[in-house]
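seq as requested:
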Amino acid sequence: SGINAEYGDYLALFKKTVAMHEMYLMRLAAHSKLREDSNFRVFLEYAKDLKVRTKNKKELIGGFFKNMTKNVDEALLSSQKDKDEYFQERRAFLVDYHNRIKETTRKTELLSESTNALSMDYMQLAGGFALLSVQDPQLQRFMGQCAVTFEVMQKLQKRVSTDEDLKLTDLFKYYQREAQAAKSLLYRRGRALADKDIAENKLEKAQEKFKDIPTAEAYLQDCKIRFERISEMAKTELDTFKARRLETYRKHLVDMSELQIRHSQSKVSELTKGLELLREL
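struct tokens:
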């Protein structure tokens, strides 16, 4: 049974990995620009194993300072006034949404852990009944049947835990990262807006001093183009994020409901079968 348990854990992990990769690749394939990326095509068509190098210490330290700088900059931009109501509303929503889905992820992890703990309790009960069946010959058949019933219940409960982990916990973890990515996108737009405001101030000062006006105008024009581009891209990405999120939630919650019904029916059937066999003894 130990080998079967290890195989079951491996199979559950494999299913999780496949599901997360599938969701990510489908998102890339649906993206208007990334689906045409040559690296993406090579990844999909490459037949051999890919060799992945982990980050070295220099890259890890560089990433740490980059994230720290970004967090400080993001905090400074949090009070930024945005005239576009759409992005103001999206930013407020994403801050609240990210906090809520973070808490939801924590609760679903606890749910999955408690469901898995119940499967371990079933395993201990099965082991206890199996031990009693050996120690007391008069109760051998009765205890043996109890052990068999709870061993099957343990396997069924483990499947429930695996499905909760796959359909709920992993889903919310994925969209917690998606929400963070959307917040990062709005941060980059906020940074572009701040750069545009700084460029406008520089141009005003240049005009007052009658000095470096062409350079200031060129810089402002460049900032405006970058800001308009990222605003257009951000609006498209946020609208897509909303539609994709609702569709995925609906699918996973319906799937989870159907699995819960199926698992409940299986457990009721097994318990009924076990009780009938015990009555016959």
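The radius of gyration is 28 Å.
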